[in-house]
TrEMBL record:
GO terms for biological process: carbohydrate metabolic process. This is alpha-amylase. Keywords: Carbohydrate metabolism, Glycosidase, Hydrolase. Residues 257-315 form the Alpha-amylase C-terminal beta-sheet domain. Its cofactor is Ca(2+). Belongs to the glycosyl hydrolase 13 family. It comes from Populus tomentosa.
């Protein structure tokens, strides 16, 4: 991957680990015969081990690792350093980051020094029954708090933006402007730490726990790939959904690169109506999504790309 100038990111699953042998309580909570040969003290007392209580939420059905134990943290740090130096991973994704205190993420990042880190801090958006509430400030505040408590060393996946965007594209584009006139997700508050996405292996694909509406995928990418934050493209969409989707995403990526849109780019939202959203990003890119008709004023704008219910202009 380095030969092709691709940075490799390791998925760091250090919250829940199934053991190799049965121990206390008849659970697989011993790790005999593996390099990290922990005993039941490495597992939290709330998930069948002999360690302390969890410092986060439980991941049910699997032994949860007790990060309060010094020997656990020492071994994890050594393993992360091995991933960095020996294997060659440069970036980390911290899985199920709700499961343990973010202060440990800070310690692990300081110990292993990845170039970039992102945490999967996923909890439920604010719903009133099945209706997604307009104000998701408390949801994004929880993600921002987590980033803060990692010493601001880790970014986080912007689950707030995903939750809002996948409702907005159904004809509720008013959701895409918060009361302060900013984007309503983590992207609107702390764009340099917001990793935006439409779907991942949990929310979409074969698991489909919380999928983005399939007939609105390109509106979603037209939003993410023109906006601040750090956008990600889902493997399935890019490689498995056909040439047309692939080529449309590539065009949006090219516009982002050539117009130098980055995580901290400025944004001004023009329209956020039921059937129309439009904005200017970084002075050089205008975009709109939805059925409503809109185009930027001025002859300096040229249409850069367009598709079903979206269009992007550049200077």
């Amino acid at each position: 991957m380095r030969q092709y100038n691709v940075r490799a990111m390791a998925d760091i699953v250090i919250n829940h680990r199934v053991g190799t042998t049965k121990g206390h309580g008849g659970m697989y909570n011993r790790y005999d015969g593996v390099p990290l040969s922990w005993d039941e003290r490495a597992v939290t007392s709330c998930t069948g081990g002999l360690g302390n209580r969890s410092t986060g939420d439980n991941f049910n059905g699997v032994p949860n690792i007790d990060h309060t134990q010094h020997f656990v943290r020492k071994d994890i740090t050594a393993w992360l350093q091995w991933l960095r130096k020996n294997v060659g991973f440069q970036d980390f994704r911290f899985d199920f980051a709700r499961g343990y205190s973010p202060k440990y993420v800070k310690e692990y990042i300081e110990g292993a020094k990845p170039i970039f880190s992102v945490g999967e801090y996923w909890d439920s958006c604010n719903y009133n029954g099945h209706f997604l509430e307009y104000n998701q400030d408390s949801h994004r505040q929880r993600i921002v708090n987590w980033i803060d408590l990692t010493g601001q060393l880790s970014a986080a996946f912007d689950f707030t933006t995903k939750g809002i965007l996948q409702e907005a594209v159904k004809g509720q584009f008013w959701r895409l402007r918060d009361p302060q006139g900013k984007p309503p997700g983590v992207m609107g508050w702390w764009p340099s730490r917001a990793v935006t996405f439409i779907d991942n292996h949990d929310t979409g694909s074969t698991q489909a726990h919380w999928p983005f509406p399939s007939d609105h995928i390109m509106e979603g990418y037209a939003y993410l790939l023109t906006h601040p934050g750090m956008p990600t493209v889902f493997y399935d969409h890019f490689y498995d959904w056909g040439n047309s989707i692939h080529e449309q995403i590539v065009k949006l990526i090219d516009i982002r690169k050539h117009q130098d849109i980055h995580s901290r780019s400025s944004i001004k939202i023009f329209e956020a109506q039921p059937n129309l959203y439009s904005a200017i990003i970084g002075e050089k890119v205008c975009m709109k999504i939805g059925d409503g008709s809109w185009c930027p004023a001025g002859k300096e704008w040229t249409l850069a790309t367009f598709g079903h219910r979206y269009a992007v202009w550049q200077k």
